[in-house]
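Try this one yourself first.
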């Protein structure tokens, strides 16, 4: 039982510590808070592979998470138990 607990703990800490954000989002440094999305200016958050909130070009598989307020490549869902998005980088 202890080995199962230890394995679960390692997997849990790994999933929490990996930032699933898109590579361009991780490379950009944000000085202040991200802007609020204005539907009058844009129909969607991501248009033509450019996120209007993060102001970076993203991959075709990226989606913007409203809970984390960042683009996640291979976005699956935002996990309330991990308090992190589940995406391509931490899906396993």
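Now uncover the answer:
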């Amino acid at each position: 039982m202890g080995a199962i607990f230890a394995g679960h703990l390692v997997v849990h800490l790994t999933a929490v510590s990996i930032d699933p954000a898109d590579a361009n989002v991780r490379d950009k440094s944000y000085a202040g808070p991200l802007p609020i999305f204005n539907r009058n200016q844009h129909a969607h958050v991501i248009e033509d592979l450019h996120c209007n909130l993060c102001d970076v070009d993203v991959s075709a598989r990226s989606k913007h998470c409203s809970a984390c307020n960042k683009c996640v490549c291979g976005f699956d869902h935002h996990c309330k138990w991990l308090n992190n998005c589940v995406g391509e980088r931490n899906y396993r």
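Discussion: The helical segments are 2-17, 23-27. The two ends are 22 Å apart (CA to CA).
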